[in-house]
Amino acid sequence: MAFSVCIISNVINSTLIKVIDSYRSVSDDIQVGFNGLLAADVADFALHHPGINTHLLTWKGYGPTKNELVARAAHDWVLSIDSDEIASPELQRSLSALTFKDINTVYCLQLVHRIGSERIRYGTFGETKELKRRLYNRKAVSWDTERVHEALIFPRQVHFETLDGILYHHTAESTAVIRAKNRKYALLSAENMLEKGKKYGLLKPYFSGLNAFMKQYVFKKGFLDGIIGFRLARESALYAWWKYRFLEQLRQRSFH
């Protein structure tokens, strides 16, 4: 049985092209949902990349936007991929060999992070067995409605299987790019917390930042990656701190 590949992206770049090309041999239905781009740019992309189903979607948050794209897929089985995740040749072979039987089965892919040309081996980014639950049947599974850090909602009788091969996550070209992304994600997290009435103590932002740094750099041995390990731990600490700073700013605005 066939499956669709669904990719959400707010950019058109060489990495996205590599991502798409890594799935052309395993799926006859590749859906790319763009957001935050001009309609003319999306139309130009579609013109120069035939065989790809492109859509310009209104951004509703990660979970809802992914669900909207999945609803447009040609097949019930869906592989949800980020715009910077490339399938290794071994993973491509595993995907090609799949025979789907139970709609309650969810397939997991092993993720490996890269920053520029460097493979991250330690810290949160370098966990040796980080599995992403990405291939599922839309009749049984869907994304939640979180603005950021979205997750799949599974049926009670779900069964997980892990595929051979690697999903290479080209996280960023540099830690500067990661910092820019983290600011955006921190603001989205703050909006989530505001909606849920999240409360915190005066020292929470600082303890949260310190805890994020220690987890990344010490407990998960990020220091073994050298200078890049330190920089990644620093960015994790900033992200944790920003969430609460942005939450406070949002609260102040809501009172005016």
Percent helix, as a range, is: 25-40%
Low-confidence residue ranges: none
Count of discrete alpha- or pi-helical segments spanning 4 or more residues: 7
Q: What coarse outline follows from CA principal-axis ratios?
A: globular
Gyration radius over CA: 19 Å
Secondary structure tally: strands: 11
SS-derived structural category: alpha/beta
SSE topology string: EHEHEHEEHEEEEEEHHH
What does the largest sheet look like?
9 strands, mixed
Distance between the termini: 56 Å
Strand content: 25-35%
Chart the SSEs and their pairings.
Blueprint: E1 4-9, H1 14-21, E2 29-34, H2 39-48, E3 52-56, H3 62-71, E4 77-82, E5 85-87, H4 89-96, E6 105-115, E7 118-119, E8 131-137, E9 142-143, E10 152-153, E11 159-172, H5 175-195, H6 204-219, H7 227-254
Helix pairs in contact: 5-7, 6-7
